[in-house]
Design a protein that fits this description.
single chain, alpha+beta, 6-stranded antiparallel beta sheet, 13 helices, 6 strands, 58% helix, 7% strand, elongated
Length: 428
């Protein structure tokens, strides 16, 4: 490749001619150009060498790609063979469960607007009867019975105080307190609003039961048991209804704002049992067989006879508004108003004091309107007055000292009577 165009020229004679003609500068320029040509030729050769290396590397890559494509074809053929074998294995009852799990894995990859059964134990009731799937059916029934038992125990312990060790409620009513502070009343109303507008588990069960109740005017698929759908919705509705009743009692029998919040947490713990039961099945705590059924149910589409989405929004709104109105009106009419009029207070009681017989006797509560700000004031039943002072004998509570005082005064302020030394006796 290295060809010198000046190789056949007599260099010495040429140099002498140039020197003689005074063209030294031209010679230097020609020499410089020759060096540049040689350098360019060297670079060109390096570039050609690099191209040769790249060409060989590309050839190797093409060969490798061909090998990969060949291997991929073999893998695809192997996968197709496995699919064929799997389709034959599905026909075998011993391998039916494995096929269901494979179908679940494929369904989990689908993302669309299709609605599925809820992840709770009541969905077992909707799809599995006591004969064809007794384990799943009775498992769901046991979860329901646990929920109802806990909620029943809560309500009965409130409605029947003798069944409870709670004896701090003062008044003629064995259910609701004689009165509570105004801040507690406000928290009670706010808790009901939050409970309904932002549905927790108990409220969600009520809404779901109404929305998933089958429409008898629509035709269900042949593999759907309409009776099981109705049973699932009815039991879910009963559990949600009873949970809301228990919530009502727990809220309006609470004596402090802290109790209201804690009672809400307790009811949510009971209402979430059906969801926790479903989660336990998914984790395989009760065997692989029902776990696989739960995985299938998780992606089981709702049947056509379930109420459509347009009606669901309306039904949900009706349930929320109805529950809010019922709970709020019941709380005001049956709790707040009677408390404000002192209907739950002990109207009359007898006081016996040793050494002060003139103050012994019956005392009756004053009929005054209150809103959780004042404790009841009891006056002597017969209105006897001290011979020396002509003051009314009263029995009242001082919030500052947190003590009940028996005193004589023309006013009804127990704390003021204590400051004036008009107290006859006091509670411990």
């Amino acid at each position: 490749m290295n060809v010198n165009p000046l190789s056949d020229v007599d260099t010495e004679s040429e140099t002498d001619d140039v020197m003689n003609t005074g063209s030294r500068a031209a010679y230097k320029k020609l020499k410089k150009r020759l060096d540049e040509v040689e350098e360019s030729e060297k670079r060109l050769m390096d570039f050609v060498t690099m191209l040769d290396d790249k060409t060989r590397h590309l050839a190797k890559l093409r060969k490798r790609i061909t090998e990969i494509e060949h291997s991929e074809k073999k893998i695809m053929d192997f996968v197709m063979m496995l699919d064929d074998r799997t389709s034959h294995l599905v026909q075998d009852d011993d391998h039916a469960t494995a096929a269901k799990v494979n179908s679940v894995n494929s369904l989990e990859q689908e993302e669309d607007d299709t609605e599925y059964y809820p992840d709770d134990s009541y969905s077992f009731l909707a799809l599995h009867g006591p004969i064809e799937s007794p384990r799943l059916f009775w498992y769901a029934i046991v979860v329901f019975l646990f929920q109802m038992s806990l909620q029943t125990a809560v309500v009965m312990s409130i409605v029947f105080p003798r069944w409870s060790s709670n004896e701090i409620i003062d008044g003629s009513s064995g259910v609701f307190a004689g009165d509570v502070e105004a801040i507690v009343k406000i928290v009670q109303i706010l808790s009901i609003i939050v409970h309904v507008i932002f549905p927790d588990y108990s409220m969600d069960d009520l809404i779901t039961a109404v929305n998933l109740f089958p429409d008898t005017n629509k035709k269900c698929q042949e593999d759907v048991n309409l009776n099981l759908l109705v049973l699932s919705s009815v039991l879910r509705f009963l559990q949600g209804l009873f949970a809301n009743i228990a919530t009502f009692y727990l809220v309006f029998t609470s004596l402090t704002a802290k109790e209201v919040i804690l009672n809400f947490a307790a009811m949510n713990l009971i209402s979430v049992v059906d969801n926790a039961g479903f989660a336990a099945v998914i984790k395989g705590y009760f065997g692989e067989e029902i776990r696989n059924e739960a995985l299938i149910l998780r992606k089981k589409r709702l049947p056509d006879c379930i109420v459509d989405r347009k009606q669901r929004s309306r039904r949900t709104l009706i349930v929320i508004l109805s529950t809010f109105i019922l709970m709020t009106v019941a709380g005001i009419v049956f709790v707040f108003v009677p408390q404000s009029y002192g209907r739950f207070l002990t109207k009359t009681f007898r006081l016996q004091i040793g050494g002060n017989e003139q103050y012994n006797g019956c005392y009756i509560a004053e009929e005054v309107w209150r809103f959780g700000t004042d404790r009841p004031i009891y006056n002597h039943l017969y209105g006897e007055k001290s011979v020396s002072t002509h003051h009314q004998v009263r029995f009242a509570y001082c919030k500052i000292d947190r003590i009940w005082y028996l005193f004589e005064a023309e006013h009804a302020d127990a704390c003021r009577a204590m400051a004036e030394n008009n107290v006859i006796a006091h509670s411990s």
